[in-house]
Design a protein that fits this description.
The protein is of the alpha+beta class. Helix content is 29%, strand content 26%.
């Protein structure tokens, strides 16, 4: 089919939109929609018109249209034009006369939705996102994963973006060359499909290894219960189970893509401010600890060595890294969850032990 296909003209009823009852009783999509494009296009769908919500459609071969259809709605068409990934449909009637059938792809799976101006308006909150700097940061550098398609541009925020192969998440920030926060972006279709095939569980597990992480969804939570190709209760239970297992990785529904982009910017800016504060506190704690040890050593006279027959004490061996990491976490010192510890951490531990 070309980018612009118009119905050829006509035979009787060739200019009508037809909605018939689906003769397949096992299908959850109870209607068939037929449009006069090319040799005819047929979709299974769940309603006769997108009045309160967008209707999911499943394209089928034109031969699936029954020989003697049970017509439930017929309307003459003023215009039926396909432009790229959408079909604009205008009917010859005063009300409920404009709609659009949109072709999209989620994780390689084709999805088609039938929407009207009313349902599209409901998906657009009447708000304007602020332009004030988040956390007072003049310029924030955000890393964007190289595998992220149609990435956020942060055009209205004070942000510079750098492409980088992130170990997890789609957007992140670093401190001292270490990834300290990340946000995973999901559309509702992507969220549900990754939840069903199990990949979301591993993604959340990877995010939980970071000091700060979250998942942002470009839709409303209420849309979970309008899904018609998977059981909504199964999706809700799966999301709840993920939140209980990894409570430090929130799943935030932000209604629209612009709001999700704004939330991602604010979250990463707050995480950047937190990381800077933690680093400053850690530096102060290290200096104060060293000064305290120096003060004690100057105020306390060194004892005079006495001869002894006892064997000379052997130097203590270094403790396990996990023990030093646990000590640092208890002392409020920011350390990586895994890998080698910086020399300053070991020095602070030795000072704390009087070594």
């Amino acid at each position: 089919m070309t980018d612009v296909d118009r119905f050829a003209s006509p035979a009787p009823d060739a200019r009508d939109m037809l909605v018939a009852a689906n003769p397949d009783p096992s299908s959850r999509l109870g209607y068939l929609l037929r449009l006069p494009l090319g040799g005819g296009m047929v979709f299974r769908t769940s309603g006769t018109w997108p009045r309160t919500k967008a209707l999911y459609c499943y394209p089928v071969d034109v031969d699936e249209w029954p020989a003697e259809p049970e017509i439930v709605e017929r309307a003459p068409i003023r215009s039926c034009v396909r432009r790229g990934a959408a079909i604009d449909l205008i009917l010859e009637r005063g009300r409920e006369n404009r709609s659009q059938i949109v072709f999209t792809t989620a994780r390689g799976r084709e999805a088609v939705f039938w929407q009207s101006p009313r349902t599209r308006k409901q998906a657009r909150p009447n708000v304007t996102t602020p332009t004030a700097r988040a956390a007072g940061i003049a310029s924030l550098q955000i890393l964007v994963d190289t595998r992220e398609q149609y990435a956020y541009r942060f055009a209205t925020q004070q942000v510079s973006t750098v492409k980088y192969a992130l170990p997890c998440g789609d957007y992140g920030i670093t401190a001292d060359d270490r990834l300290v926060a990340a946000v995973e972006r999901k559309s509702l279709a992507d969220l549900v499909s990754s939840l069903m095939n199990g990949t979301l569980r591993y993604a959340v597990g990877d995010l939980a290894a970071l000091p700060r992480a979250a998942i942002v969804v470009e839709d409303r939570y209420s849309q979970v219960f309008k899904l018609d190709w998977v059981r909504p209760a199964m999706v809700a239970d799966g999301l709840a189970e993920l939140q209980v297992r990894w409570p430090d990785v929130p799943i935030v529904f932000c209604e629209t893509r612009p709001l999700a982009e704004e939330w991602t910017y604010r979250y990463l800016a707050a995480a950047h401010a937190w990381a800077e504060t933690e680093r400053a506190v850690t530096d102060r704690m290290g200096i104060a600890l060293a000064a305290k040890q120096a003060k004690v050593s100057l105020a306390t006279p060194l004892p005079t060595p006495q001869p002894t027959d006892q064997p000379t004490a052997q130097p203590t061996t270094a403790p396990p890294t996990a023990q030093v990491r646990a000590w640092a976490n208890a002392a409020g010192i920011l350390v990586p969850e895994r890998g080698r510890l910086h020399g300053d951490i070991w020095q602070a531990w030795r000072l704390a032990q009087g070594q």
